[in-house]
Amino acid sequence: MRIGILGSGLMGGKLGTIFSRAGHEVVFSYSRSREKLEMLAAEAKGKARAGTPREAAQAADALLLAVHWDRMDDVLGQAGDLSGKVLLTRSLPMDTDNTRLVVANTTSGAEALSRKIPKARIVSAFNTIPSEVLFDVFEARLKGAGPSLLYCGDDTNAKAIAAGLIRDVGFQPVDAGPLTMARYTEPFALLIAQLAYEGALGPEMAYRFEWMATSGGPSPRLR
Ligand SMILES: NC(=O)c1ccc[n+]([C@@H]2O[C@H](COP(=O)([O-])OP(=O)(O)OC[C@H]3O[C@@H](n4cnc5c(N)ncnc54)[C@H](OP(=O)(O)O)[C@@H]3O)[C@@H](O)[C@H]2O)c1
To answer: Which of 21, 79, 163, 167 is the most buried (most CB within 10 A)?
Structure first.
């Protein structure tokens, strides 16, 4: 397949390299350095080349969009008409500091609750898995690492208590950070609900995050 990369940074550079090594014909585009695009194409070792966004886009069977949100209008303008194109977007609508989504929730249920009872030490937990899986996880808890479970909150001691309880049920607690992270864990819970209740495999489901051990890997520029 011919794949056009619009934005050849951390994500686009790596995914383009992997797509090329998997046998696809890749065009790397949109960088401040043409030399970098040429290097990426050379290191990708397949049928990869450097090009302009327009070249990457117009011949592509699929496009990967991987630019910062504030570069979106520029890269789209350079790519030209994308009518009918298959476009995979990796881009998240982040603010300039990469600290928050600019097209998204600005609060959460957990934060609203904390405003109602400001002296309570609130932890958002157990809301990202369907109830149907709880007994299965509990019964399997001694058979090895259980599924992950996200939690977040502002009070360290309250979070330690929550983590212990999460472990007691059979999950591996994953600290998502302060209570404001509920802005993201709550929509994630709806994604899980969609998979559980609308998916083909039923609601006895959980999720697991994996941290891969670092090894030699690709060149430092691609890390
Ligand atoms: N990195 C992650 O782990 C991750 C995870 C999930 C989602 N995302 C999302 O994926 C998107 C891409 O992230 P990233 O980390 O790959 O970004 P990045 O490393 O900053 O790459 C962005 C690309 O855009 C190019 N660019 C920036 N300004 C430019 C300009 N004025 N003219 C031409 N090219 C320009 C950069 O050029 P240079 O080559 O010159 O730097 C780079 O190739 C973002 O929306 C991000 O939110 C990233």
So the answer is: 79
Domains in the chain, ordered, with CATH? 2-95 (3.40.50.720), 109-198 (3.40.50.720)
Task: Place 193 in a pLDDT band, splitting at 50, 70 and 90.
Answer: very high
Confidence of residue 165 (pLDDT cuts 50, 70, 90): very high
Backbone angles phi, psi at 26, to 5 degrees: -110, 140
Q: Ligand 1 pocket test: which of 5, 32, 35 has the largest number of ligand atoms within 8 Å of its C-beta?
A: 32
Q: Is 109 in the pocket of ligand 1 (CB under 6 A)?
A: no
What CA–CA distance (Å, rounded) separates 29 from 32? 10
Encoded amino acid at 109, one letter: G
Q: Which two tokens stand for residue 203?
A: 């609601």
pLDDT in tens, 3-18: 999 999 999 999 999 9
Beta bridge partners of 55: none
